[in-house]
Design goal:
The structure holds two protein chains of two kinds. Chain A has helices at residues 2-7, 14-17, 24-31, 34-55, 67-80, 82-114, 116-130, 138-145, 149-173, 177-185, 190-227, 233-242, 246-274. Chain A is mainly α. Chain A has a single domain (67-275), classed as MetI-like (MetI-like fold, Orthogonal Bundle). In chain A, helix 9 packs antiparallel against helix 11 and helix 12 packs antiparallel against helix 13 (246-274). Chain B has helices at residues 2-8, 69-76, 114-119, 128-141, 157-169, 187-204, 215-221, 250-264; strands at 31-40, 43-53, 58-63, 84-89, 92-93, 99-102, 175-179, 207-211, 224-229, 232-238. The radius of gyration of chain B is 19 Å and the shape is globular. The N and C termini of chain B lie far apart (45 Å). The A-B interface holds A 10-14, 178-179, 181-188, 196-197, 200-201, 203, 275-279, 282 and B 77, 79, 97, 100-101, 103, 105, 107, 109-112, 120-121, 151-154, 156, 167. Bound molecules: adenosine-5'-triphosphate (ATP) and magnesium ion. Adenosine-5'-triphosphate binds next to helix 2 of chain B.
Chain lengths: 285, 272
Amino acid sequence: MALAAQAEPNLETPSETAPAAPAPSRLGLARLDPGAALAWLVPALLIVVWQAGASLGWIPGNVLPAPTAVAAAGWRALWSGELWANLQISFLRALAGFAIGGGLGFVLGLANGLSKLSERLTDTTLQMVRNVPHLALIPLVILWFGIDEEAKIFLVALGVLFPIYINTFHGIRTADPQLVEMGRIYGMSPWRLFTRVILPGALPSIFVGLRFALGIMWLTLIVAETISASSGIGYMAMNAREFMLVDVVVLAILIYALLGKLADSLARLLERLCLQWHPAFQTKR
Amino acid sequence: MIATTLQRQGVTLEPARPVRQPVMPHHGVTLDLQNLGKSFGANPVLRGIDLKVPAGQFLAVVGRSGCGKSTLLRLLVGLDRPSIGQLLISGRPATAGVARIMFQEPRLLPWARVLANVEVGLTPVGGAAERRAQALQLLAQVGLADRARDWPAVLSGGQRQRVALARALASEPRLLALDEPLGALDALTRIEMQDLLAAIWQQQRFTAVLVTHDVAEALALADRVIVIEGGRIALDLDVPLARPRQRGSAELAALEGRILDQLLAPGRGDHR
Ligand SMILES: Nc1ncnc2c1ncn2[C@@H]1O[C@H](COP(=O)(O)OP(=O)(O)OP(=O)(O)O)[C@@H](O)[C@H]1O
Ligand SMILES: [Mg+2]
C-alpha cells in the first residue's frame, strides 16, 4: 500500500510532479535517508531497554543475559574461531539446499507454466508433496541420511522448492495475454517471446517466491541443525544449552535474526535492480 | 507541424484531384475479401463480407459495439482464421507477419525502455547500433526522441500510444490495422494523433484499416468509410475530400449525417 502510494506521482510527467513534491522539511529528511534510520530505531531501543533491564537486575542473567554479556560471548566465540567455523558450515548448507531446491522449483515452475503436458504430469504430485510439512520428514530423513550433511541439505531443498515453484508457475501462467499476442504479431520466436515477454512479466511473482523461500530456508536449517547436527549455528546453540551457556544460546538466536535480515535485504536489492521498470520500484527523480 | 513540413516538401495533394490517386507510388497492399465470414461456435459474427480495398487506401470501419469490427481486423492481420470465404492480400492468400496492428491499449513491454520497445518492431537484422539509430529516428517521427530512455510507465496515455505507433511503423508495414487506437485519449490529444497519423500515412502510403467509434474521426482520416451491421457491410461510402481536411466543413457534416443515419436507423443493427 505504502509503496503504491509512493509510486503514484511517477505516473505523471516530471514537470507535473515537481511542484507537487512534498514539503521542504520532508525533503531535507529524505537526504538523511529516514527510512533506513527509522528501521533500526526499534531494534536499537529494544537493546537499550534490554540492557537497562539486565543492569538493574529486573531480568535475571540465567533467563536472559545482558546484551553486553552476549556480545562478550560473541567475542569469545569469534576469537576461538568456533563462531566463524559454525557460521561457515551453516551458510554452506543453506546455500547448497537453496541452490538445489530453488533451482528445481524454478525449473519445474517454468516447465509447468509453459507446458500443459508437463503440468498434467507433475503438478498434482507436487501439490500432494507440498501439503506434507517438510519438517515432519525429519525422523525419516535421519533414518536415511543419519546426521550427515545430506540430511540438512535435503530438508532445506525440500522446504525451498515449493515457494519458488508455486510463484514461478503462477508468474508464468499469468503472463499478460495481450503482450504475448503482441509478441506473436511482431514475429518473436518462442525463445524471444519467453525471454522478452513471459519471463520479465513473471519476475515480480518469482521474487515473492524467492523472499518467502529465504525465510523457509533459515527456519528449516535452524530446526535441522538443532535436532541433528555436529556443527553449525544451530548445533552451537544446542551444545551451549547442555552447558547452560545462556549467552551463547541468545547469541545464536541473534545471529539467525541478522542472517535472515541480511538474506532478505539482498533479495530486496536484487528485486530493486531487476524491477526498475516497475512503478512500485521507481525512485523519484 | 509534420503536415506543414510535408507541404513544404510538396507532398500535399492538389485540392481538385481525387484522393485515391496519391502523388507517391503505392507502398500498400490490396485487400480482397471474398464472402469472408467468422463464427464463434454457433454465433456468426461476420456473415460474408465482400470488399476490395485498393493499395494505399485509408479505410475506416464503423459500426455498433459488438458488430464484429475487431473480429474483422484480426482476420485481416492473420490473428484469426476465417470460418468461411477467403482473404487475398495483394492477390495471394493472407500470410501472417506482413501486417501490423495497433490496439486501444499500447501493449508496450513495461520492462523495456521506450527505445527498446520501438526496436521490438524492427526486423532483427543489422547491428545493435544501427537498430538503435533506426528506432531513434522512428521515435523522432512521432515526436518522442527525448523520451527514448524512459520507462513506458512514466509516459502519458497519448505518448504511449505514439510509441506503439512508432513500433508499428518500424518494419514499414504495407498494411496497418488500427483498432480504436485513439479511443482512450482525450479530445485534444486525439486530434493531434489524428493529424500525426494522417501525415505519416500520406508519407508512406501503406494500406490502412481504421476501426473507430468516432464517425468524425473516420471522416477526418479515411478515403472511404464502411458501416458494418448484422455481420455485413451496410454502407460503403467514399470520402472524396482533399487533405488536409477542414474539421467541421459542410461536406464532412453531410457525410457524417449519412453515416449516423445508417448507424441509428431503427429496426436494424443488433443481429444477435
Ligand atoms: N474469441 C471469441 N470467442 C467468442 N466470441 C467472440 C470472440 N471474439 C469476439 N466474439 C464475439 O464476437 C462479437 C463481435 O466482437 P468484436 O470484438 O469483433 O466487436 P467490436 O465490433 O469490435 O465491438 P467494440 O466496438 O465494442 O469493440 C461479440 O459478440 C463477441 O462476443
Ligand atoms: Mg472492438
